[in-house]
Design goal:
globular; two-stranded antiparallel ribbon; about 30% helix; seven-stranded mixed beta sheet
Amino acid sequence: MTESLEIFRGAASGPFLFTCEHASARIPPPLSRRIAAADRRWLATHWALDLGAAAVTRELARRTGSAAVLSRVSRLVCDANRPPEAGDWIRLDVQGHPLGFNRGVDEGERRRRLRLYHEAYHRGVDRALAGLRPVTLVSVHSFTPRLGGERRTMEAGVLFDERHERAARRLARRLARDGLRTALNRPYSGRRGMIHSVQLHGRAHGLPYLELELRQDLIDSSPRARAMGRRLAGLLLSVLPEVAGSGVALGQVRPQ
């Protein structure tokens, strides 16, 4: 564990590397000293982290014998799943509320966050991959059931770009057969730059990659999140064609 990330190892070497870019609502020092009282309500919401995603990620790693890399910095400090040039890489406000710890962010502060948190996180993913045999990269995220006036009826989304549509469609069909209302490239689209982290590392290392989105009301407690992780572990192992020949069979998923 470092200032920017946690590395979780379910076993020596499984068929996946899981990443969770929005795992934490943590505001690191010295920024933590600037948290205003009015900021705290937002730090418990989807604006600060992907609720339930970290617990699902760790359970997936346990059940598939794989490694996981999880960010330890809130997406409100800087977003590990966005390129630094993106307009929402650092959010100065949430729904019109100015964030105390993001007041007065200048170019020097942007560079500091880039170096200490964003680049450090992505170097950690690269280091984790360097110690593994070929794996499938799966980024784990969650989404709120409502955003603005939009009610999101899907329960899971499989996000992909033009390189891995076939695998994404296979996984989406399997999730749907298991009873999850599943959509492709929703609520966000991998074809529109919304899978920055796995796309960056998948292309750099020549590995297959997808992003998995889960609706937060399905994983909003530790028992529910862990149950979802157990459920998804078997589905991932049984479907993604890239794990064929990896030596990890569906029957090797550890029982509850």
